[in-house]
Structures
1.
Amino acid sequence: MTFGTKKQIHAEQGKNELEFKLEELTNKKNKLAKKVNELKNKIKNNDERNNKRREIDNDKKKQEKEFWTKQQQQLEAFFKTIHSDG
């Protein structure tokens, strides 16, 4: 076997190893990209859920504030009628 033949065989083996490594890395990259997309979707869903919760909480606070404002107005009106009668 000549030196050139040995070198060519060695180069082909190295090429096969590199192709295999490239395939492994491509698969790993695809898996990681899929994981990134899953995490982005999870973040999006969490954000949407949190926004809905925040909106519900704000609505509850607004209703409570309106209730107490109305209560205050009614009590003030009631006290005015008591003071005007007395």
2.
Amino acid sequence: MAKAGTRSAPKEVVEKAIVRTTNYKQAFSTAQGKAVLLDLLSEHYMLKNTYYGPENDEGRSMAYREGQRTVVLRIMQMMGLNTAEMYLLIKQGDDNARTKTN
């Protein structure tokens, strides 16, 4: 029996969440998906600061960059990736890029 004041999620909500998570994992587990994820991690402020000092646009540029970063964080969450795994993925991508250029 559930505790007073707590509710479990409806079955349909849980099922949709499982399907959504599975879809993310399948999409980003292919070679192409990993390449896209690596690009997103590298280009959308996961390793860069989104603040570049006082701006004339009242922070809109920073808000835009934070929005880009938030999308990548959502994908990481759906994939179950933590920060250490993100760094490892980026390092592997960098190593692969060096190997192809040498």
3.
Amino acid sequence: MSLEHRPAIATAPLRRDVRSERPAARFGDGQMRKALMLFSKFTKNEDGAALVEYTVLLGILLVAVIATIVAVGGWVNDHWTSLNTALAGH
């Protein structure tokens, strides 16, 4: 069989890099713009102020709960260690 009569090999077209077609757009630009618009909308609206107050309150409560868990955990650990030492001595 000569080279002229061989069937052509089917090849898939090369993929284009879609990112290179948009050099000005970076990852997260749209999300950041949406977040800023949402934040500015909340600051203009009284409901947004209440939301910010409740978020700060929730943050304070979260810190208080974590501090309480750490303190109680230390207290339990101290008592557990002293109980273990007392039982091991007998």
4.
Amino acid sequence: MPLTRPFLRMFDRITSDPASLGGKPVIKGTRISVELILEWMASGASRDEIVARHPHLIAADVEQALGYAAFGPERHHSRHASPGTDGLRVP
């Protein structure tokens, strides 16, 4: 499902490819999913601990993963958005 352009600009470190991890959003250039970062944080890891354990990540990667998850990316899939709904999913 393609994402709308404004949403992609907000999260330029996040990408999604149907050929990789079933299309889950991941940190660009890695196979580390937004979901995995959330799991690490839910288990008590801090942003700095995640970056220290995974030196190919930077703080902005973790911050964008959190923002991406909190913002509700499913609301911004253009396939579900209708004109005038501000990107909200139409029932």
